[in-house]
């Protein structure tokens, strides 16, 4: 786990006057699930596209196993893009066989791999079904199978759960864990889903506006913003959110109070015990609480604490 497989050194990418990636420096270890977390447009996809050689940086350098990314052997990386890339009128089995043949996988070995992939991704009974007849979840699982049929050392998954139903998402998550735990693959995962990043990633890079804000394990990231709970509130007069936020932020043992998507997030020690005082402060501002919930810190709270905005904005 301590061996570095991918290293980005001062990677920057500009599109005209827009800087999508801004001096990115990070190392990804062999055999880990590495998550890129951030809102849409944060630079996640551009960053990983550069790191696997799909896009050239404006400046900076990417090394894979110590070599320049453009010198890496064909087949080292498997890419499962956010947009489905499938042949509509091939069956699942035909699609996988064709992809394997493109990577020069020996025929007898390829057939075994295809059968295993169909089984692992619950597509065996759809092996002879053409792509146009598959559900959205099945298509996404086939897309993943095509990305790994040649047994790549590194697997890139760009928003793999986008649009999936809960059952398909569970199958996908279990397979991603299997890639790491049973096959020793390095998996790079981009997502804006909090629970996906938290449950799957060994380490997470939080990115916004093309900059790396934090890099650590999910547990350490959540610990970093302090202990305590988060109170989420919707007020009867949202125009007074800022006034109430100011009142709450100076309350004893309140770590922070911010407005997110029209609601207030108050992070505090013993939040339940402080609810009477919190509600009293709201009423003193001339409004009342319409909805209230108390929960533990999440990765989204980490992001809010870093940027003052929600991950989905």
Number of helices: 10
The CATH superfamily of the largest domain is identified as: P-loop containing nucleotide triphosphate hydrolases
**Computed structural class:** alpha/beta
Shape: elongated
* CATH topology term of the largest domain: Rossmann fold
- Topology, number of strands: 14
Q: Please mark out the parts with pLDDT under 50 across 5 or more consecutive residues, or reply none.
A: none
**Overall pLDDT score:** 89
Largest sheet: 6 strands, mixed
Gap between N and C termini: 34 Å
What strand order characterises the main sheet?
6-7-8-3-9-10
Radius of gyration: 23 Å
CATH class of the largest domain: Alpha Beta
How many domain regions?
2
Order of helices and strands: EEEHEEEHHHEHEHEEHEHEEHEH
Helix content: 25-40%
Q: Would you identify the CATH architecture of the largest domain?
A: 3-Layer(aba) Sandwich
How would you describe this protein?
This protein has a 6-stranded mixed sheet with strand order 6-7-8-3-9-10, with helices on both faces. It folds into 2 domains: 219 residues, P-loop containing nucleotide triphosphate hydrolases (Rossmann fold), CATH 3.40.50.300; 70 residues, Alpha-Beta Plaits. It is α/β, with parallel strands linked by helices. Helix 2 packs across helix 3 and helix 2 packs parallel to helix 4.
Features:
single chain, 313 residues, Rossmann fold, four-stranded antiparallel β-sheet, 35% helix, 29% strand, elongated, P-loop_NTPase, nucleotide-binding
């Amino acid at each position: 786990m301590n061996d570095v497989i991918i290293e980005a050194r001062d990677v920057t990418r500009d599109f005209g006057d827009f800087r999508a990636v801004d001096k990115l420096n990070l190392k990804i270890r062999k055999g880990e699930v590495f998550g890129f977390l951030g809102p849409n447009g944060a630079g996640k996809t551009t960053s990983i596209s550069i790191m696997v050689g799909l896009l050239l940086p404006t400046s900076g350098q990417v090394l894979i196993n110590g070599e320049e990314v453009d010198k890496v052997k064909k087949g080292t990386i498997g890419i499962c893009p956010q947009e489905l890339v499938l042949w509509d009128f091939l069956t699942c089995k035909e699609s996988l066989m064709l992809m394997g043949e493109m990577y020069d996988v020996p025929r007898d070995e390829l057939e075994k791999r295809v059968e295993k992939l169909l089984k692992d991704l619950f597509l065996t009974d759809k092996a002879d079904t053409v792509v146009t007849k598959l559900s959205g979840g099945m298509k996404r699982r086939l897309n993943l199978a095509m990305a790994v049929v040649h047994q790549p050392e590194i697997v890139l998954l760009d928003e793999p759960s986008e649009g999936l139903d809960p059952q398909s998402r569970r199958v996908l998550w279990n397979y991603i864990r299997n890639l790491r735990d049973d096959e020793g693959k390095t998996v790079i995962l981009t997502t804006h889903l909090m629970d996906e990043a938290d449950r799957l990633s060994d380490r997470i890079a939080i990115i916004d506006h093309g900059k790396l804000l934090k890099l650590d394990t999910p547990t350490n990231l959540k610990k970093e913003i302090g202990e305590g709970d988060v109170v989420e509130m919707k007020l009867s007069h949202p125009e007074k959110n800022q006034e109430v936020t100011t009142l709450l932020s100076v309350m004893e043992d309140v770590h922070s109070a911010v407005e997110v998507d029209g609601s207030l997030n108050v992070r505090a020690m013993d939040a339940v015990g402080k609810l009477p005082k919190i509600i009293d402060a709201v009423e003193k501002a001339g409004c009342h609480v319409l909805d209230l919930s108390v929960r533990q810190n999440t990765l989204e709270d980490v992001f809010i604490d870093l940027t003052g905005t929600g991950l989905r904005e």
